[in-house]
Write a structure and sequence with these properties.
Layout: E1 8-16, E2 20-23, H1 35-42, E3 46-49, H2 56-71, E4 80-84, H3 95-103, E5 109-113, H4 119-133, E6 139-145, E7 165-173, E8 179-187, E9 195-196, H5 208-212, E10 219-220, H6 222-244, E11 253-256, H7 261-271, H8 282-285, H9 292-302, E12 311-318, E13 322-329
Parallel strand pairs: 4-5, 4-6, 11-12
Antiparallel strand pairs: 1-7, 2-3, 6-7, 8-13, 9-10, 12-13
The structure holds oxa(dethia)-CoA (UT7).
The site of oxa(dethia)-CoA has 21 residues, from helix 1 and helix 6.
């Protein structure tokens, strides 16, 4: 029996960031830190903060409407909605179900993926499998994050690094000479301890004591995550190239997870990839976790950097520990 595999690609992109800008200069008012330290150690100058009444699915909805409009797709056409997030509106139901309701996407299945900051790329890889197998034709993939609501604002090791935002893409079958050429998914659970939110789950249910001890906030061993991140970015990118039979010379753009400019530059150097071919916006948004790759992708498209036929690597890493990459030959359906 002939098994027909369809090639999946991205046919629409949309993003949303909250209005409130917090610059580095506000942080020394609440913590022992400085603009100089934050900029030189991370490259971050400012980040966005979601409003008190603004949730992950609210931001996902705003980014999704833009992505659907950009793709020329109506909510009824969606077969599946996947959100990669670490900060769902609630532990359950899935934020993707809330988004499905908000969009009125009555024909879509919906679920969330929890893969740390790698969640958007994990979700895009899952969507590509549904499309390849013919089980879904049109999939909405979202990275949306309100990490500033789960930060410990007394912990200078973490709170200066993160920001909020959302990015969405519509994925469909594309012409055979375009779309996703190769993917890689990885995990190393032994490093789970390096980036976690200890309380609020079944291991340590929320109590007044866990809340008083800030155990429902993000905790991170930055040095360990840094070492892992550089390795994951380099090895993941090399692996998607190897699987597609391409080399670094074939890469037009790398769209990396935006956690720290030093991690990005270090990985690019190890890959022998000039920084002109690397998309960077960590300076303006900080680490927006699952939203960072679609936010950077949209910016590169808006600036006219990424064009039809370009080879683009999206690469991420995060809590889990996880990493994932995909290599896509860009399809510009608006040509
Ligand atoms: O999406 C994945 C999530 N996470 C990441 O990607 C994070 C990966 N890690 C990193 O980006 C970096 O490790 C950090 C930016 C977190 C830290 O940079 P670093 O160069 O590794 O600094 P460090 O942790 O080695 O700390 C150096 C010093 C320490 O002081 P002592 O012990 O040397 O006296 C820290 O206490 O800097 C101090 N420090 C700060 N000082 C001012 C840590 N945070 C701050 C701060 N302001 N905000």
């Amino acid at each position: 029996m002939k098994c027909e595999v369809k090639r999946a690609g991205i046919v629409g992109v949309g993003t949303y960031v909250p209005e409130r800008v917090m610059t580095n200069f506000e942080l020394p008012e609440i913590l022992d830190t400085s603009d100089e330290w934050i900029r030189s150690r991370s490259g971050i100058r400012e980040r966005r903060l979601s409003a008190d009444d603004e949730s992950t699915s609210d931001m996902a909805l705003k980014a999704s409407w833009k992505a659907l409009e950009n793709a020329g797709v109506s909510p009824d056409e969606l077969d599946l909605i996947i959100i990669g997030t670490n900060t769902p509106d609630m532990l359950f139901p899935a934020s993707a179900c809330l988004l499905q309701d908000g969009l009125g996407a009555k024909n879509a299945g919906a679920f969330d993926i929890l893969a740390g900051c790698t969640g958007f790329i994990y979700a895009a890889v899952v969507a590509a499998q549904f499309i390849a197998a013919g089980t879904a034709r049109t999939v909405l993939v979202v990275g949306s994050e309100t990490l500033t609501k789960v930060l410990n604002w007394k912990d200078r090791n973490t709170c200066v690094l993160f920001g909020d935002g959302a990015g969405a893409v519509v994925m469909k079958q594309v012409p055979e000479d375009r779309g996703i050429l190769s993917v890689v998914l990885g995990s190393d659970g032994s490093g789970g301890k390096f980036l976690k939110m200890p309380a609020g789950g079944s291991r340590m249910p929320a109590t007044p004591d866990t809340v008083a001890a800030d155990l429902h906030c993000l905790q991170m061993n930055g040095r360990e995550v840094y070492k892992f991140a550089v390795r994951a970015m380099e090895e993941g990118s090399s692996e998607v190239l190897r699987r597609a039979g391409l080399t670094v010379n074939d890469v037009d753009f790398l769209v990396p997870h935006q956690a720290n400019i030093r991690i990005i530059e270090h990985a690019a150097k190890k890959l022998h990839l000039p920084m002109e071919r690397v998309v960077v916006n960590v300076d303006r948004y900080g680490n927006t976790s699952t939203a960072s790759v679609p936010l950077a992708l949209e910016e590169a498209l808006q600036n006219g950097k990424i064009k039809d036929g370009d080879n683009v690597i999206m690469i991420g890493f995060g809590a889990g520990l996880t990493w994932a990459g995909l290599l896509i030959k860009w399809y510009d359906c608006h040509r």
